[in-house]
From TrEMBL:
This is IclR family transcriptional regulator. Pfam families: HTH_IclR (PF09339), IclR_C (PF01614). Keywords: DNA-binding, Transcription, Transcription regulation. GO terms for biological process: regulation of DNA-templated transcription. The keyword Cell inner membrane does not apply. PROSITE patterns: HTH_ICLR, ICLR_ED. Residues 74-242 form the IclR-ED domain. GO terms for molecular function: DNA binding. Signal peptide: none annotated. It comes from Halomarina rubra. InterPro entries: ArsR-like_HTH (IPR011991), GAF-like_dom_sf (IPR029016), HTH_MetabolicPath_Reg (IPR050707), Tscrpt_reg_IclR_C (IPR014757), Tscrpt_reg_IclR_N (IPR005471), WH-like_DNA-bd_sf (IPR036388), WH_DNA-bd_sf (IPR036390).
Length: 243
């Protein structure tokens, strides 16, 4: 419903697959739902929704509890396996853990995927609660980690980016990190993100720290923790380039 990801280009889209994933994501967003609620939410017939729900249940991707369908743990297996196969995750995991410990805050690794920034790994050593951070998808152009990644992309000259955005991204590229509030990960949160770049100086990920406006402020925010993030990001880059 209004999600451009589901637009049918008339060439490669299999509408049944699109509908199945719309159902799954609606079940997730509603934290469990029944046939009638989903039909209303997705503007589909109850018969069509029922067929998709039963099929997804039989395959183990949805489970039924108390007359409502919920996302099943089969997705957990797929996601964890995809992360395990990531070279970046293998290389960066220890740095994320080190950063969280040294900063005394939540540290996380974000990767660029399909024009979004996805939290691949997260470790919490602070009091900031960003529950369910792993797997969260953040917008590239407006999130702090996303801007750190975009600043090291060759498409910085794209017409889709305004002059003001380009100027801000150039500043991030020059200083080597991005700072700011991060509403997509919670109210009153502050975030520091440093890009992780490949041999072509193109950002493939970002290393970040997030905390409250109280725990991350002044010199600690702008210098101390920022230096820790920048240093560990460079450590990850060195390991990637030598792998």
């Amino acid at each position: 419903m209004g999600d451009e990801r589901y637009a049918n280009d008339g060439q490669y889209t299999v509408q049944g697959v699109v509908t199945a994933f719309r159902v799954v994501e609606a079940v997730h967003n509603l934290d469990g739902a029944g046939t009638t609620e989903l039909a209303d939410q997705l503007d589909l017939s109850k018969g069509a929704v029922h067929k998709h729900l039963k099929t997804l249940e039989q395959l183990g991707y949805l489970v039924r509890r108390d007359d409502a369908y919920h996302v099943g743990l089969r997705f957990l297996n797929l996601g964890l396996d995809a992360r395990r196969r990531s070279d970046l995750y293998s290389v960066a995991r220890s740095s994320v853990e080190t950063l969280a410990g040294n900063a005394g805050e939540r540290a996380f690794l974000v990767v660029a995927e399909a024009e979004e920034a996805v939290v691949l790994y997260s470790v919490d050593e602070g009091s900031y609660d960003a529950g369910g951070t792993e797997g969260k998808r953040l917008p590239l152009q407006t999130s702090v980690p996303g801007r750190a990644i975009l600043a090291h992309r060759p498409d910085l000259q794209s017409d889709d980016i305004t002059s003001e955005q380009k100027s801000a991204l150039r500043q991030i590229r020059d200083q080597g990190y991005a700072l700011g509030t991060e509403p997509s990960l919670g109210v009153s949160s502050r975030c520091i993100a440093a890009p992780i770049v490949d041999l072509e100086d193109r950002a493939v990920a970002a290393l970040c720290v997030i905390g409250t406006s109280g725990s991350l402020s002044g010199k600690r925010f702008e210098e101390d923790v920022t230096g820790l993030v920048f240093s560990e990001a460079k450590t990850i880059e060195a390991h990637l380039l030598s792998a």
